[in-house]
């Protein structure tokens, strides 16, 4: 087997899940946190730049507040996150300080990453912190996020951060050893996947596809996170956080867990930002000709290929493009508002002026403002 990709990776995002951080909800596992800090400090000494994405705020908040079970009300979850986040940063700060390293708390929301200016600000702050040899500890800003503006899970957040800082690798530490060809609890003949290419449909099928019990248990979000991270060229490793010295051993080249390689062409930074929009203002349903022109011919989207326009968006806002099978195939910046798009849909561009009384561009989305998914 070839050595782990972590041996050569210079900039790495490490994501640790709630179950690991809080010892399955029993409260912060200080000893384990201290061991990660020790390993990350060792990587840092080797010249690697590491960003830590840590879950566990809500679980630790629930524990600190003495609640017996996870609440359903959003405001209570948000309160728990605010309480628990204190515990997380305290524990990491202490852990890293003993290795002479400073930490920085960075709480992000999807809205921060969707706004181009805030995205660029977050990127430059993280780069500055890494340049200062500070360890950024990132979590979603759960206290202020509602469904409309949240990333939702930290596997996805880890991938977005990997794209944001152009990391070479994303390591997702979990309580499973990695990916199996099928759910090993139900299929005793399931095989362990040591290596695969990120972003293939076969991989998604292995994780059970959307809505399966394994998928909702977390492997699917990890596979989709690997697909997302691959767009900026980052390879992903899914491994057990319970493995002894897992990060240092990976950095030594040892193969642990499942390695998902980024083999696709890397998106340019701006296109990457477009593709990373999880929330969109509207949806354009395309006919098969338009879908084909986008996916296979590198063309712009013309109004004539749009059969339905949903949502409310203004010129310059982000919309999704959906093919006739209902697959989300692209994200782009609309040249016309939703109302205008409804009026010019299915019509040739030469008629735009007669319909709207003016013409901005012949395309509904120009190729330069479009990212395929
Ligand atoms: N941000 C959440 C927390 O810190 C965790 C989300 C996740 O684990 O995916 O509790």
SSE order and pairing:
Blueprint (H helix, E strand, L loop, with lengths): L10 E6 L1 H4 L8 H16 L3 E6 L2 H8 L9 H24 L5 E6 L1 H5 L1 H16 L3 E6 L13 H11 L4 E6 L20 E3 L3 H6 L6 H4 L2 H12 L4 E6 L5 H6 L6 E4 L7 H7 L6 E5 L1 H10 L8 E6 L6 E5 L5 E6 L4 H7 L7 H5 L13 E3 L1
Parallel strand pairs: 1-2, 1-5, 2-4, 3-4, 5-7, 6-8, 9-11
Antiparallel strand pairs: 7-8, 9-10, 11-12, 12-13
Helix pairs in contact: 2-4, 3-4, 7-10
The site of glutamic acid has 13 residues, from helix 3 and strand 4.
Question: Would you mind describing this structure in some detail?
Answer:
The protein has helices spanning 18-21, 30-45, 57-64, 74-97, 110-114, 116-131, 154-164, 201-206, 213-216, 219-230, 246-251, 269-275, 288-297, 338-344, 352-356, and strands spanning 11-16, 49-54, 103-108, 135-140, 169-174, 195-197, 235-240, 258-261, 282-286, 306-311, 318-322, 328-333, 370-372. The protein is α/β, with parallel strands linked by helices. The protein folds into two domains: 5-269, Acetylglutamate kinase-like (Carbamate kinase); 280-372, PUA domain (Archaeosine Trna-guanine Transglycosylase, Chain: A, domain 4, Roll), CATH 2.30.130.10. Strand 11 and strand 12 form a beta hairpin. It is globular and about 70 Å long. Glutamic acid (GLU) binds next to helix 3 and strand 4. The site of glutamic acid (GLU) has 13 residues, from helix 3 and strand 4.
